[in-house]
Structure to design on (129 residues):
């Protein structure tokens, strides 16, 4: 009888672990994309960019409001060429001629080992006339 109880307790513990018997995993942003991926506005026209996120749990993808929109280099982080301005609602306006990138940035919902928010970004190309 004692052996039966030990085996039963052990099986219950394994089931609890296998079923995720801890606290639920929070929903996190895995990636961020910007639409349209390439915009080529006419001279003097603005381009509206929107962001959508892919989450670690459904529903995904979903439209999101980034923490910030900015013009960047093609890698999404470095100094931009200074060819456009972008509002915090994702509206870009060309101020020069050439190719630049519009980047949306937001928190993934996770923290790194230092306790800082993990940022995700999505980048789209803007061809200024």
């Amino acid at each position: 009888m004692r052996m039966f109880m030990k085996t039963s307790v052990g099986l219950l513990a394994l089931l609890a672990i296998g079923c995720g018997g801890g606290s639920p995993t929070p929903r996190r942003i895995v990636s961020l994309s910007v639409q349209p991926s390439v915009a080529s506005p006419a001279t003097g026209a603005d381009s509206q960019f929107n962001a959508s996120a892919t989450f670690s749990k459904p529903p995904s993808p979903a439209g999101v409001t980034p923490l910030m929109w900015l013009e960047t280099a093609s890698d999404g982080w470095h100094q931009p060429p200074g060819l456009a301005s972008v509002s915090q609602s994702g509206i870009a306006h060309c101020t020069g001629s050439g190719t630049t990138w519009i980047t949306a940035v937001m928190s993934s919902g996770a923290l790194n080992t230092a306790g800082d928010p993990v940022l995700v970004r999505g980048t789209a190309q803007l061809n200024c006339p």
User: Anything to note?
Assistant: The domain at 26-128 is CATH 2.60.40 (Immunoglobulin-like). The longest strand covers residues 98-111. The chain has one helix and ten strands. The mean pLDDT is 86.
